[in-house]
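User: Modeling request: complex.
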Amino acid sequence: MNVAYVARKLASLVVTIFLVLTFNFYLFRVLPGNPFALLFRGAGLSANAVRGLSAQFGLDQPLWIQYVIYLRNTLTGNLGLSFQTRAPVTDLIIPALINTAILLSVASVISIVIGILIGMLAAWKRGSKFDVGASATTLVLYSMPTFWLGLVLMVVGVIYFGLPVAGMRSFTGVTPGTLGEVVDLGQHMVLPLLTLVLGLVGQYVLVMKGALLDVFTQDFMITARAKGISSQKLLWDHGFKNAVLPMVALVALNLGLSIGGAVQTETVFSWPGMGLLIYRAILARDYPILQGAFLVVTLAVIIANFAADILYPFLDPRVGES
Amino acid sequence: MRKIQTLAVLFLLTISASALIAFPVRAQTAPVIFTVGWGAAPMDTLNPTAVTLYDGGAYVIMHLIYDTLVRADVNGDPIPDLAQSWSYSNSTTVTLNLVHNATWHDGQPFTADDVVYTVNTYLAHSEFPIMRLYVQNVQSIAAMDNYTVQISLKTPDATFISELLPAMYIIPKHIWQNVSNFTSYTNSNPVGTGPFKFTSWGGVNTYVQLDANKNYFLGAPHIDQLVVRYFTSYNSMALALQSGEIDYAGPLFPPALAQSLSSTNNVQVITRPDQRYYYFCFNGYFNGTGNPALRDPKVRLALSHAVNNTALNEVVWNGTYATPQNTVIPLTFAKWVNPNIQAYDFNLTEAAQILDNAGYKPGSDGIRVSPKGVRLSFKIEVPSDYSEEYRAAQMISGWWKQIGVEAKAQITDTGTLGNEVSAWQHDTFIWVWSVGEIVGPDYFLSMFKSTEAQPNPNGGLSDSGFMNATYDQLFSQQQQATDPAQRQQIIWQMQQIVHDNAVYIPLYDPFAAQGYRSDKFTGIPGGTLPPLNQYASNNLFLSVTPVSAMNQTTMATSQSNSTTVATQGVSSDTLAAIAAVIIVVIAAAAVLLKRRKSGPEKVQ
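Assistant: Request completed. Predicted assembly structure:
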């Protein structure tokens, strides 16, 4: 692979990260309202108590000093203390990340695999009943409000299938450290997973189908067909291989974004992941948590994109050559 | 041929997977677990010195683990807790006799040393956000013997016993004396004297597990375990209550949801007065940038007569989930609420008359203009956190229009509105005051003190800009009035001043709507709970009793407990289906990949 290509991508990675850091700082300083002033009402603190808290978090310092402190702390892995809990933000983000990863990784894998399969089939049988039906269904699911879909699935799942409503675990009848605990987790995952997969699968289907249709119109496909290559080989080795690039971009983007959790799904099902952490932090205007979470999410997106960039030349040797 | 082969493989995989996963996990458990669903702020810290009262998440749990010296009863009067009695030897010296039979959760005995240590620790740490506030007026504390402490106050303080001590947790000396950094101390295994012992915390936004303290000095709880689970959606919490996944749900169901819950079998909905009230605020600050006409008390009075809070309550709170309120102290604090203050008469003619008499004549467009030429045109802002009050703002705007006053209702981001208020840029708004760091009338009266009405950063709670020397004087008098009857008189007088000056229009006092499984548990008190214990408390969960236990003893009037609720365990069919889906996907991927590999290899 071309060294210059990698170097170029790496340089833009570093610049982007710095810009993100700065923007992340700026964003939370221009937001209106001293988060502690809200404690007057939410918690009924006196003006004195609020001033004390502001000083403790350095909010009484000039902006540029706050910026320098922020940069230094972030680079040393210190994301600050949560306004609410006064615990280190990293301690709050890491367990939330793990919970999100459990849910979102499974959801992503399932929806990518199903999405690719349906998309390929729809492209292969373009105009057939399957194509129309699959495209329409996934499009409808894709545009459905997630919280609504989640609530509907919840009502059905709880009433007709006896699935648990929310959370990650039961408090009765499960012995910790046994297979039962894993099964219990699985049961709690079913509904949020279903909600996520139904919502996610649509875009994979559409992108896969679109990319493949594009490839089918290329000259080399006609040539290949003329050479008498079997349909199957035509679809996989000639079609899929060439159509996979936009899919890789989409998957990279989504994997990065999924680090931020699925705010709506996690909120409906009280799944204690990143989405829920962000949601609660917004309600409480807990800026350090939000700042930390946004940083982690943007970094994940940037790095996933970088990974995709590095991967491209392997998938398509034309990419890194120019 | 291949297709059939593949299908067969998939089928076998599915069957075996479902057999594997579907085998049973249910076990019969003896302990009585009371599961609480909690829709408000989640538990955020285990360190009582770090509690910020940030929406009270940790407070609810801390109150189960830690005891205070004194508790408040439903009237807000002090009753014994760790202190069994107390007496003042002079206006600033109080002696407390402690209980002899309390023990810490780790078995150590509770003594006066712990109380002295606690108070001195709170005194020494000005960085504690809340706990230090309760000892602000303490001069010194000393142990007279093992079970007696004497506290000297700086000034006579009517609130010390009844309002400060019920919120001040007593922490064990033998544990905390080894702590070097209180702020970063996680207190991962909190030890208190309270009715519940800490077992585990799943982390922010998850759950807290507690065991009953069988040695609780006021009598053991009737349940074995208490689980508090945090929900982010009241809709899903309602479903969890209906399906039996939780036994109790609160603290604040929205009216519509409470209504639908109350028609569910086996679910009992209770409403209790909440410790907050909604109000309509005028910016009367002398030096603000809001509409200056509002600095005229006559204008405020006229506008107050053009607001019907009973009608607003009907529309916004269904008339059922809130009570119209006439003064500036929530109805929970009943003995401090001046009963002689009535709502401003809703009378548009009278309102117009007041404006006419004060010289506010309608201009060419029908909108009144002040003698100085200021149009009576206002913004009514609603903070985005309470956007449902927008309807109230619209209705008020409609009434005002009829007396020649223009008002534009709008929803403003809560943070932005907060900024506007501290810079005195607002005209009017609807907002909420809820119970503060000090539980009692003090807090609700403090926002009308002159010293609170300053621009930031020196300012404080005031959003009305009200300044009145008599009021300020009365405020310090009531703080020092150790005779409750005298204090009540002063506090009533203060409310009258606020009312006469039309500083606020008090709107309504909402109820906290909560639900519980009446087929499984009983002993959950309805109606008023003591202040601070409003949502959930040692009082509340101490009396919870499983219905089956009641049946065994006497209770013949039991609700049907034959209806067992289908829950928890997932049917094996469902499991099989889930397993099947997962396996099919994986298998399909595997088969497809394999096919690719095994395909003919030439053609280049």
